[in-house]
Amino acid sequence: MLEHVALGQSRFMTPGVAPDPRGILLGRYGLMVFPTLEGVVSWLRLYSAESPLDELLSGLEITQVRTPLGSREMVVRIPATSSYLLDRASRCAQLVGGATYTGTSKHFVKYRDDRAPYGYDANEIQALPDGAAFMVHGDGFVQTYGKERELPLDKLLFRLSRRRVPGGDKLRAEERHELYLVVAPGLGEGVIRYLWRNRIPAEVGLVTPERRSEFDEPGRARSHILFRARDLPPRILELFLATPGVAVFRPVSQNVSVEVGFAHLIDLASCQSLFDPARFYLFWGKGDRVDVVLGPLELSGIEHLTRVDIDLEKPATGDTMKLTQIDAVGVPIEVAPSLTPSRRVVAALIPIEQAQWLKRLVYFLPQTSLRGHRVALTDRGILVVANQDVDVIPLGAPLAEVAPGLLVPLGMDLVPRVAPEVLARSLGHGAGVYTVFPPGGHPFQVSDQALVALERRALARVEVAAADVLDARIEPPGDPAVVNDPVGRFALWGFRPPKAD
Amino acid sequence: MAGRELEALLDRFILPLVKGGELAVGRPIAVDELRMFEEQIPHASEKVVETDEARADVLSDLVVRPPALVFDLDELSLAAAVHNLLFLVHPRADSWSVSGSARRRVIETAQEMAARPLTHSRSRVLARHALLHNLFDLTRVDTKVSWWTGSATFLGQRPPGRLRAWKTVRRVREEQTVATYDELLGTVEVAPVVSAILRRTPLTHLLSMGRDGPPLQWEDAVFLLRDAELARAIAYASVRGTEPRQVVSAPARLAAAFEQMLERAPHAADVRAVAAFLVHLNALLALGETGERDLGAKSPLLSAVLSPERASQRPRGLATFFAVPAAAALVDPLLAAPPGLSEDAALTERWTRHRAQVVEGVGEAVIETLAGRLRRHVVPMLESHRADHG
After folding, report:
1. What is the 3-state secondary structure (H, E, C) of B200-220?
2. What is the pLDDT of residues A46-77, one digit of tens each?
3. How many contacts does A have with B, using Cβ atoms within 8 A?
4. I want to staple A480 with a disulfide (CB 3.0 to 4.6 A). Which of A387, B115, B134, B206 is the partner?
């Protein structure tokens, strides 16, 4: 039935075949015959993992065929652009129980194997019987097939179930770089708030399925919220995977994503040309469905969608305060030496006369000290207040805090020793106010707002002149074009060649 | 070129050659006339300074501090040689009044003018490149005017108004075509002079390797690779483009010139420098793909240019270009990868994937053969170096 092709052989019985540059017999197409559809899927799965299917799609055809005895088989036809390509296809087909043939239109001969490295040629070609679409010539047999129906690859791709990958929900850092979340509308606000609080950069959009359901409420669109989250930490990913109503997808290409924990049987990135670039495809794992979002995806940052609380009934300002008269039986507050251990110095009151010292000291202070002090210039002196983590400038009278904002000279205390809140009320002291008892004289109050960071106060107004910006760009060079000047009929008249030395 | 003053030559030919614009080509310049132009250089300072400033602008794209440029006889001679070559494609140079021997005289003159000393001076190389950087970009607009009784073609000249008058009545039609380097300077007749000019300005030659032109002699140009700033500019110019074939076009020509170099008797240090440069270009191609989502995937660039289906369309030198790192690894591992590669994990992964794909694409036989040829030049040097250092 078949003859081995010899190196350099140029005439063949099989129509439409020729040797390629390596001498291997090749037709225009490769044909792979599988007993079942599972064989075809397994072949696509194997092949797509090794090489992009995109290069085959221009001529790929999956057909269900019927033998004259009525048995059904599946045939995959691919363009045989080179023997390298067909070698790979043949090897994959052999692994999943298929046979490979090559030919151009109606007659296909067995593709090369170890016994015939340059391929096979049929030793006899017969006319095809009625109803037969093509004939394959194998080892010791000839079989005709009639076409029954075609199965487009894109339909097959959408019908195949996704398989669960063991440990597939444990993603590496680079796999978590960009993930898509499909969230039920009721959970949307919670997920936005959760992502925002955890500082996850994310974008969100509302997507509505094109297909309507009979269970939809009239006038109300059935929609999902689609998130694109970046660098999701593993703990948050685990939480989302375990939350009903939240599905996590991992992108396999620009516009195709597969649910985390699942994988499509066929490498979807290898057949990118089957997917419309203007749409976004979500391959669900559990539901075995494919959602198509009319793209391109336009998502908005979640930071603009966090919850806003507006209560128009609530007064905009604080409570109204009433000034009460001091009780006639009360005693005046006085400063007396303290009996308690000395407190931490939190402020200093520098007399106006020592302002020059402070100015000089400013030049020597480190940046942390400058930033850690706040200062207010009052008619009673310069009040310098330090933050928790810095020591106060050692000038003027050091002040300690007996209650928040209530400053007394170091080593002194206020008598009578009443509770701080009682004291504060009687002094009209409250939040945002510093009440200072100077070493001599009456107490005074300074608003917290009057205190300015020393690093800002320290600088006198600096005159900065606006500099002119010079344009240093170089004009892009033009295209040089030759223009011929008129030179007259005798252009070389008097032209002397170089003298030979 | 009325009056044949240097100022006019600078204004109408040399300045447009540097800055772009219309280059007026007139009667050829004789050697005596060139001497006269040289004497006029101090008196045409305004145009000379303008030319030097334009050349400095050209160089500012290449180097941070362009050297001080002074227009002198060197530049004048090279510009005059180009002018004379362009005269040979002037329509009058093909008329009955210009005989074959007259054309040969013009070529001899151009050859004499182009015979300036070869240089390894950085300033001189940059100065010459700034003058001739547009050599491969020269074009000429040719206009064919047809009317109801006849037609006429004007090469690089504007058709007279009388031929274009009454367009509808006389059924005047104008067709414009653009002549490029191939027609202007790529003819067999002028090829030796163009090669001589390019040997004087190797930087121009290296930066234009993506274009058609005479083959490169690495021995003339290898000193440029030892200047880090220029080598970087050459490397980036070599891998310019978006289409895979466009990206590898210049590297393939550089590698083809390297193959030719290995057949001669170059210095071993020169061979090492060129091999290291080609390895660096390979690394740049890998670096360009470090932003890919899957770093372990096959390179689309290598798949496109090395696919067995397109083996017959591969430009010459392409297989050698991609095989250099693997061949260098067999000869001297120091040459096989650019220094610092291992500090970037993404680049290392991409580089490893590229190398594996190259072995598949070009085959081990090509790599072994190239390694054998490299070994002939590099190994004796290594052995003598080891002997010197005990």
Report:
1. HCHHHHHHCCCCCCCCCCHHH
2. 998 888 888 888 889 999 999 998 899 999 99
3. 115
4. B134
Omega within 30 of 0 (cis) for the link into A251: no
Compute chain B's Rg from CA coordinates.
25
Q: Which residues contact B41 (CB under 8 A, 6 or more apart)?
A: B6, B48, B71, B72, B73, B76
State both tokens at A29.
Answer: 């197409």
Sort A347 into a burial class: Cβ within 10 Å, 0-12 / 13-18 / 19+: buried
Residues listed for chain A: 501
The packing angle between helices B318-331 and B345-362, to 10°, is 110
Determine whether the interchain pair A481/B140 forms a contact, defined as Cβ–Cβ distance below 8 Å.
Answer: yes
What would the pLDDT profile of B13-34 be if each residue is shown by its tens digit? 999 999 999 999 999 999 999 9
Residue with tokens 């009639």: A146
Three-class SS state of A180 = strand
ipTM: 0.83
Among the listed residues A281, A303, A283, A285, the one whose alpha carbon sits nearest the alpha carbon of residue A293: A281
Q: Cβ A480–B141 below 8 Å, yes or no?
A: no
> From residue B242, how far is each of A187, A362, B53, B239, B315 by CA, in Å?
45, 58, 32, 9, 17
Query: What string of DSSP letters covers B304-325?
Result: HHH-GGGGGGPPTTHHHHHHHH
Integer Cα distance of B290 and B294 in angstroms: 9
CB distance A139 to A2 below 8 Å: yes
Helix (H, G, I), strand (E, B) or coil at A325: coil
| Residue B127: partners with Cβ closer than 8 Å, 6 or more residues away | B55, B67, B69, B74, B75
pTM for this model (two decimals): 0.50
Question: In the β-sheet with A178-183, what is the strand arrangement from edge to edge?
Answer: A290-294, A279-283, A256-259, A246-253, A178-183, A224-230, A202-207, A300-301
Q: What are the pLDDT digits (tens) for A263-318?
A: 888 888 888 888 888 888 888 887 778 888 876 777 888 877 776 666 666 655 56
Q: Give SS3 for A427.
A: helix
Pairwise CB contact (< 8 Å): A483 & B24: yes
3-state secondary structure of B65: coil
pLDDT digit string (tens) for B228-263?
Answer: 999 999 999 999 888 888 899 999 999 999 999 998
- Mean pLDDT across A357-382: 81
Residue B340: which pLDDT band, with cuts at 50, 70 and 90? confident
Chain A residues within an 8 Å CB radius of B58: 477
What CA–CA distance (Å, rounded) separates A413 from A415?
7
State the nearest Cα–Cα gap between A269 and chain B, in angstroms. Answer: 11
Rounded CA-CA distance B95/A478 in Å is: 31
Please give the single-letter amino acid code of residue A102.
Answer: T
B139–A482 CB contact, under 8 Å: yes
Of B63, B66, B72, B40, the closest CA to residue B53 belongs to: B66
- Tokens 């300036």 belong to B116
The model's confidence at residue B130, banded by pLDDT at 50, 70 and 90, is very high
Q: Residue A13: which of A146, A109, A135 has the closest Cα? A: A109
The answer for residues whose C-beta is within 8 angstroms of residue A384's C-beta and 6 or more apart is A347, A348, A349, A350, A358, A373, A374, A375, A392, A393, A395, A396, A454
Interface test with B, best of A85, A495, A496 (most B CBs within 10 A): A495
Residues of A in contact with B300 (CB under 8 A): none
Q: How far apart are CA B8 and CA A479, in angstroms?
A: 20
d(CA B222, CA B152): 48
| CA A99 to chain centroid | 44
Task: Give the E-state strand segments of B215-275 in sequence order.
Answer: none
- The pLDDT tens digits of the residues spanning B163-175 come to 888 888 888 999 9
Whether the predicted pLDDT of A404 surpasses 50: yes
